[in-house]
Design brief:
Blueprint lengths: L4 E6 L3 H12 L4 E4 L11 E3 L6 E3 L11 H9 L4 E3 L5 E5 L5 E5 L8 H19 L8 H6 L3 H7 L4 H15 L8 H10 L3 H5 L9 E3 L4 H7 L8 E2 L4 E6 L6 E5 L4 E9 L10 E3 L4 H9 L5 E8 L9 E7 L4 E6 L8 E8 H8 L3 H15 L4 H7 E6 L22 H4 L1 H5 L6 E3 L12 H19 L1
Parallel strand pairs: 1-2, 1-12, 2-9, 6-15, 10-13, 12-19
Antiparallel strand pairs: 3-4, 5-8, 6-7, 10-11, 11-12, 14-17, 14-18, 15-16, 16-17
Keywords: FAD, Flavoprotein, Oxidoreductase
EC number: 1.4.3.-
Protein name: Amine oxidase
Length: 463
């Protein structure tokens, strides 16, 4: 009888690769089974159709200060950081379609009372996200049972402040504030050292740096580190069951390959657990989590251009909209490659309405909105337009039919305390991923930290 592998890791995204590397460095035998024909999970860098560099279909941003693990890999692999452009004006669109440009770091001209209200809400969310008592009982339970929208209203948010919070929430989760637990959103903020850094594109912010080679280059290089044969691509796992001896697992795949392991780390997004039959069934807290957390609508529509026309208006490429269909966009150009682009985010209800349009109408809707935001004629924007790339995460079963991470509605988190449960042993099963971390949830850094911590728990169990 073949000796069982110490650990099988399901999924070759960042968390799975990191778990495998940590285990391998400790001398354990590891096998990574990946459903796709590539590594990287939700890091997915694609070539522009014209060959002028890459754009990100998935994870795109990092920083070199508070995201130590991902930055360490960037240095290890000699990847080239691109500083997010914040030089110039930010474009803002009101709910009636009125647009204005204002300096980065400033705010739209809404009037002093409105601006004070928005600032007060921002500071209130910031303070709550950094206060440890927010996440302790009884406050934890109170916040879990209300939506982020109610949290904002209870704080005295007026119309414009609520619309601003909607931009924040849609931009992070693809959902409206009324659909997300206040506790869940504040936990995301806490993991990024507060709302301000979560939203910030400058130094130390969550969106400070990109990579010229694309973020998938991290995963591709990580996959070269373990021994040959450690990672099997195009091998979707269909079932995980406890073997009769009760101290090993039997893992089967769609192509008929069986594997036996002492421990199993599941590193795929929780909505994708539905692709796997677990025998015995998942423990109750996991079933509760999988049944309740959900993705929003979060689509990237990347417009590539001949030149960065928005800069001629003094704009940095960052926008926000209270109307839609685009919630916000950022300049994702790499100038040295002639790779000029705006990554537009279509989120929540407006994103779904946009998705229902035909391809040409989608393009026209985005280009017309960019025309308004940057105070440039529609004809000029069309003349500068080269091509577009659209993320397809909502059609991807291996991602769980969505992106960037699943998040809980009101009334779910306090009952399950999934982070505490995920840090333990579920009968020899272990779960990791960017949604199962208290640090940089939804980011590459969070995935790496979760993978490392999960592997360390497994190593302790194996000893």
């Amino acid at each position: 009888m073949t000796e069982p592998i110490d650990v099988v890791v399901v999924g070759a995204g960042l968390s799975g690769l990191q778990a495998a590397l940590t285990l391998n460095e400790a001398g354990r035998s590891v096998l990574v089974l990946e459903a796709r024909d590539r590594v990287g999970g939700k890091t997915y860098s694609v070539q522009r159709p014209d060959g002028k560099g890459v754009q990100e279909m998935g994870a795109a941003w990092l920083n070199d200060s508070s995201q130590s693990m991902v930055w360490s890999y960037c240095q290890k692999f000699g990847l080239t950081p691109v500083v997010q452009n914040i030089q110039g004006l930010v474009a803002s669109e009101d709910d009636d379609g009125d647009c204005q440009l204002f300096p980065f770091g400033g705010m739209p001209e809404f009037g002093k009372g409105v601006l004070d209200n928005i600032t007060a809400l921002r500071d209130y969310v910031e303070t709550a996200s950094l206060d440890p008592k927010t996440f302790e009982h009884p406050r934890r339970a109170e916040l879990d049972n209300i939506s982020f929208e109610k949290f904002c209203k209870d704080a005295g948010a007026g119309t414009k402040a609520l619309q601003t919070a909607r931009v924040w929430c849609r931009g992070t989760t693809g959902q409206d504030p009324g659909d997300v637990s206040a506790l869940a959103y504040l936990e995301v903020c806490r993991g990024a050292s507060g709302l301000i850094k979560l939203r910030y594109d400058g130094k130390d912010g969550a969106q400070n740096l990109r990579l010229r080679e694309g973020t998938q280059a991290i995963s591709i290089n990580m996959a070269k580190l373990p021994p040959a044969g450690t990672i099997k691509l195009s091998t979707p796992v269909t079932s995980i069951s406890t073997a009769p001896e009760k101290d090993t697992f039997s893992i089967t795949t769609s192509n008929g390959l069986p594997f036996t392991a002492r421990k199993v780390i599941v590193s795929i997004p929780s909505p994708a657990y539905k692709n796997i039959t677990f025998d015995p069934p998942l423990p109750a807290p996991y079933q509760h989590h999988v049944s309740n957390v959900r993705y929003g609508c979060f689509v990237k529509y990347i417009c590539t251009f001949k030149t960065p026309f928005w800069r001629r208006k003094g704009a940095c490429g960052l926008t926000q909209s209270f109307r839609g269909p685009m919630n916000h966009c950022r300049d994702t150009s790499v100038d040295q490659d002639g790779n000029y682009a705006l990554t537009c985010f279509l989120c929540s209800g407006p994103g779904r309405e946009w998705l229902a349009l035909g391809a040409e109408h989608r393009k026209e809707a985005v280009l017309r909105q960019l025309s308004s935001l940057f105070e440039t004629s529609f004809e000029e924007v069309v003349g500068e337009f080269s091509d577009s790339l659209t993320s397809e995460w909502m059609d991807d079963p291996w991602a769980g039919w969505g992106c960037p991470f699943a998040i809980a509605p009101p009334g779910v988190m306090d009952a399950e305390r999934i982070l505490e449960v995920a840090a333990g042993d579920a009968g020899g099963l272990y779960f990791v991923g960017t949604e199962l971390t208290d640090e940089w949830r939804g980011y590459m850094e969070g995935a790496l930290r979760s993978g490392k911590k999960g592997a360390e728990v497994v190593l302790h169990s194996l000893r």
